């Protein structure tokens, strides 16, 4: 049995004791079947599970509340009905039943991923690919790793098969890197894209930006296009835009690199301040301690604070860009002036001329 409480009156603390949940109820008119499918897909992506085919549940966490509220807003906007409530399990058995639903859902997905990774690994072991076949296989490994990270983020209760999938993926990563890492970096530098072709464009990413998307947007504005604009949505429907930090995007996670590192490498940004920021972003985004930059924890808390302050994605991204510009300006060990793109250099000069004309 589940006792419903007013979500406004309850704190949005994480489900530390396993007793607090968020529940989404919604109803859409029959004529809105595409919207129904879209809502279902969104709910799958955020890791929600269903109770008796009538309600979707997540652990009561701040991120989950944001996700549910966005879905609720979208449903109401097209004429549907939705409400988000906090709930508590009245007994340990009910609580365990809900946890089992999460573990079973994520376990199936991890099992499927492990099988896919194992198939790729066996193919690699039987015959080492070369040339185009190798590049395609390396790209497939990267995409699988990105999917694993997304799935790991919504694995709230240590689902079965997670560690087995991670083990096979680690072996795939080792094989992909062996004799390939240096060549990949050399190719990326040699094939640096024409900056002009990426100016005056709209860059597309996922909603609710975090550390990697904020820093990448800042990097784009400062070194690629100072007038770049950003949008949030589905890359498959917005072909004219440049996707970044999205599944399968050119400017995304590749191998052990986060999106920020990928963009800096592809556009050959060699500013030491950017390298310093990249080490911080890498550890925060991948939840690692590879570099242990002293400021990492404080920056992580600032980003979480921004995510709580701003509900609008554009305002959130703008605040994040400003924060990373401040961090960039604070770097005191720079051995050379910052590397500006030609466009930014021209804008800086023109501003100086205008100021002189006024004096």
Structure commentary:
By secondary structure, the chain is an alpha/beta fold. It folds into 3 domains: 89 residues, Alpha-Beta Plaits (2-Layer Sandwich); 75 residues; 155 residues, no CATH class. It is 55% helix and 11% strand. The chain has 12 helices and 8 strands. The strands form 2 sheets. Strands 1-5-2-4-3 form a 5-stranded antiparallel β-sheet. It has a 3-stranded parallel β-sheet with strand order 7-6-8, with no helix packed on it. The N terminus and C terminus are likely disordered.
Tag the structure with descriptive keywords:
Alpha-Beta Plaits, 12 helices, 359 residues, five-stranded antiparallel β-sheet, disordered N terminus, single chain, three-stranded parallel β-sheet
Short recap of the structure:
The protein is an alpha/beta fold. It is built from twelve helices and eight strands.
């Amino acid at each position: 049995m589940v006792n419903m409480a007013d979500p406004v009156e309850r704190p949005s603390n994480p489900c530390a004791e396993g007793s607090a949940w968020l529940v989404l109820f919604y109803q859409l008119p029959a004529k809105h079947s595409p919207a129904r499918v879209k809502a279902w897909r969104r709910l799958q992506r955020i890791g929600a599970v269903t109770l008796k085919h009538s309600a979707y549940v997540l652990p009561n966490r701040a991120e989950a509340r944001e996700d549910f509220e966005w879905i609720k807003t979208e449903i109401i906007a097209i004429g549907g009905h939705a409400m988000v409530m906090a709930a508590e399990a009245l007994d340990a058995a009910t609580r365990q039943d809900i946890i089992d639903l999460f573990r079973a859902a994520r376990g199936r997905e991890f099992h499927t991923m492990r099988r896919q990774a194992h198939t790729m690994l066996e193919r690699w072991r039987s015959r080492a690919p070369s040339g185009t076949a190798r590049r395609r296989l390396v790209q497939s490994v990267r995409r699988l790793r990105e999917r694993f990270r997304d799935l790991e983020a919504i694995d709230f209760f240590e689902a079965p098969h997670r560690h087995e999938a991670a083990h096979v993926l680690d072996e795939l990563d080792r094989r992909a890197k062996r004799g390939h890492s240096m060549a990949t970096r050399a190719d990326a530098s040699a094939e640096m894209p024409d900056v002009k072709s990426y100016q005056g464009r709209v860059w597309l990413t996922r909603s609710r930006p975090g550390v990697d998307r904020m820093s990448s947007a800042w990097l784009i504005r400062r070194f690629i296009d100072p007038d770049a604009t950003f949008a949030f949505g589905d890359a498959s429907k917005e072909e004219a835009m440049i996707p970044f930090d999205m599944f399968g995007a050119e400017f995304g996670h590749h191998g052990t690199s986060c999106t920020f590192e990928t963009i800096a490498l592809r556009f050959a940004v060699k500013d030491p301040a950017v390298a310093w920021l990249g080490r911080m972003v890498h550890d925060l985004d991948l939840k690692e301690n590879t570099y242990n930059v002293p400021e990492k924890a404080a920056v992580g808390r600032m980003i979480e604070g921004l995510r709580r302050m701003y509900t609008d994605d554009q305002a959130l991204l703008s605040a994040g860009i400003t924060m990373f510009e401040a961090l960039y300006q604070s770097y005191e060990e720079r051995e050379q002036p910052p590397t500006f793109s030609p466009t930014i250099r021209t804008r800086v000069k023109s501003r100086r001329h205008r100021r002189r004309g006024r004096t």
